[in-house]
Amino acid sequence: MITLWIDDKQYEAAEGRTILQxxxxxxxxxxxxxxxxxxxxxxxxRLCQVEVTRDNKTVLTTSCTYPAMDGIxxxxxxxxxxxxxxxxxxxxxxxxxxxPKIQDLAQEMGIVATRFTPAGDNCIRCGLCVRACDxxxxxxxxxxxxxxxxxxxxxxxxxxxxxxxxxxxxVQICPTGFISMEEQGMxxxxxxxxxxxxxxxxAKCGRPFISFAEIAFIMDKVKNPPPADxxxxxxxxx
Amino acid sequence: MHRLTSxxxxxxxxxxxxxxxxxxxxxxxxCLGTGCQAYAGQRVYETLKKEITSxxxxxxxxxxxxxCRGFCEQGPILVLYPGExxxxxxxxxxxxxxIKTTVxxxxxxxxxxxxxxxxxxRFIKESEIPFYRNQSRxxxxxxxxxxPQDLGDYLAQGGYRALAxxxxxxxxxxxxxxIEKANLRGRxxxxxxxxxxxxxxxxxxxxxxxxIVNADEGDPGAYxxxxxxxxxxxLILEGLSIGAYAIGADEGFIYxxxxxxxxxxNLSIAIKQAEEYGLLGTNILGTGFNFSxxxxxxxxxxxxxxxSALMSAIEGKIGEPRPKHINTALxxxxxxxxxxxxxxxxxxxxxxxxxxxxxYTHIGNATNKGxxxxxxxxxxxxxxxxxxxxxxxxxxxxxxxxxxxxGGKKFKAVQTGGPSGGCLPQHHLDxxxxxxxxxxxxxxxxxGGMIVMDEETCMVDVAKYFMHFLKDESCGKCVSxxxxxxxxxxxxxxxxxxxxxxxxxxxxxxxxxxxxxTSLCALGRTASNxxxxxxxxxxxxxxxxxxxxxxxxxxxxxxxxxxxDQEKCNGCGRCRNLCPQKAIEGEKGSPLTINAQSxxxxxxxxxxxxxxxxxxx
Lengths: 238, 617
What we know:
Radius of gyration of chain B: 27 Å
Largest sheet of chain A: 5 strands, mixed
Distance between the termini of chain B: 70 Å
CATH class of the largest domain in chain A: Alpha Beta
Oligomer: heterodimer
Helix content of chain A: 10-25%
Largest interface: A-B, 34 and 30 residues
Strand order of the largest sheet of chain B: 9-10-8-7-11
Number of domains of chain A: 2
Distance between the termini of chain A: 45 Å
Largest sheet of chain B: 5 strands, mixed
Number of helices of chain B: 25
CATH class of the largest domain in chain B: Alpha Beta
Strand order of the largest sheet of chain A: 2-1-5-3-4
Radius of gyration of chain A: 21 Å
Strand content of chain A: 15-25%
Number of strands of chain B: 20
Helix content of chain B: 25-40%
Structural class of chain A: alpha+beta
Number of domains of chain B: 5
Shape of chain B: globular
């Protein structure tokens, strides 16, 4: 076990945990956007800033990427931390000024409006969708493309995301509503990935509930295939 | 080809090479670095070859294509030994005369000698030219004697002697101690002690370790590493091999910038030669030391020069920085201890080993030893690559080596450290150029870019230029760097367009703070320097743009106006003929006027006017 200090209190942590995880496990609130407990740490939104003292050196850093280490002293509420978080939040708000989740988080930090003109498309480049698609789903349908201000999430070569199975995980995990999914008759559309999928209807209630691409993906992945009629019924009717 | 199996064999082949070379009475060297090639150097070389053959001089003259000699604006440069007669800006049509007059008749061609732009004095010998005279070329100097594709030339210069000494006489600990004693600091810009870094990787508990050359040189206008790689590739390989031995690595990488075709060619040849001669590979020089080197080409991203991004790229991933809470010296490529140094740092290693740390530490000042190569460009008379002792004052570089500011104009600022460096004004010209002093003033050493600016440079425009570069080259992962640089750029652009607001300066300062304090890598953490240093030293220029809607240097197009002095204009019509907008009106023979509506402020009229009648307000 590792022993570290957060805001003058001592905590124990397992090897491999990050400062943010230890803090959240112990009920210490650190604002964060690009971190998700089931995904690898990314460190892109820069919101979870803390000050860490190690070997007599204090640095401002993101708690989601900093591993819990023996003897480190973490401070989550210094003026420097607050200043950094507030300004980063203001930048994030300028990227997605209308997203309720971003607005709420900004408001909690006392930011009502951003001084910057809104910068565009509502995507904050947190990369949750990319990591979810890679690490949770395993479809690898989308990725980051380009650099700097041009950076965005795209299917390969900005063409149709041929690996996308239409599972909707990216839609669910997106904090700003940048990615959306539409059901149109027997088709599901994810416009951002230029993907339209044929849906299978439930044999009982008739509701289109899963894409054929997703069925094929699951059948290919699982070692012990479910019964042949498993995908004939939706989860409500099964 | 004979694979060398001992140090004695290396010395034997060196002796044979030297004897072979001494058979020719003179040597004609032509610079074929990238710069001189752009000035028709290759054609000069081909013509020389033909002329030497047609005059039956092949037995006496050794014709040699060398790497970059640094004085690129005078290229192509040709030097004849013995005598060290140096001809500048040589063109193919000068070649027959050079062979006839200088080589055969032993007379000098005055017109081809270097002429000082200020005094008009001509110089015969390369080493007498003020640009070279004030340098200490311990690293770059060998370039002028070496055909980079010929291992023999490198051996003739004493090449691989340091490696032989290392493998035969020194323990790894002794090598590191020597590097530490020499106080060699990372020339890529960090200035971190190389010996300490080597020691960390050496002590790391792992079997597999890597040594890496950072050759992803990307600062605009800087080409120190390129000139070393294309001009003296074996020097880098030798340095890297010594490092590998000291650290305990058996594999090395050279991460080479995508846009460097000549270094790629010369390095590839050098690696192949070294492998053939047993200077790379297994059981090097029969000492039991094994080491192999691979070239990994970049893909055009500036940020891949950052250590962790570079290692990601070598692993085959996107070249994006990753957190370094455990540093790369302990956990780098594939989680293995990896020691990364820049090209110039590695180039210093064989020299330190051969001549000793004692000798080396006599160059430089108290905390910065050795020399540093700079790419001196901008509004300065002599542009090119210079190698100077650490701690030399800025003034000496700009005015003694650089020959001052062209056109009798006044010096305004010097930008050091590449895009994320800073601009220093006149009153800091006595600053010693080293890692510590430049950092103290809000600039940095960087990898060696040095851009001189004169009084006609607008510092807001300069900050905007660098911020444009940085916002495009930010990888975009951290919101603070991606949005911080973009928003700083947008504000700077608005200021130069005359749309600046009073609150812009404090907002720029806040953005600069958040970008440098909350971003992950060194690119983001230093990206604010152009803004902060210009605000620190040239705040009045920002204020003039914002409050008075005036560009003091008369650069920002939205804030200036071109007019014609009716007293001075004689109506010759030269400007009218050249104006792309047909904005100049009036009758020939009487003073002309500029239609402000259609004028695009390109300045062509001002350059064209012989009577200084075009005025910028």
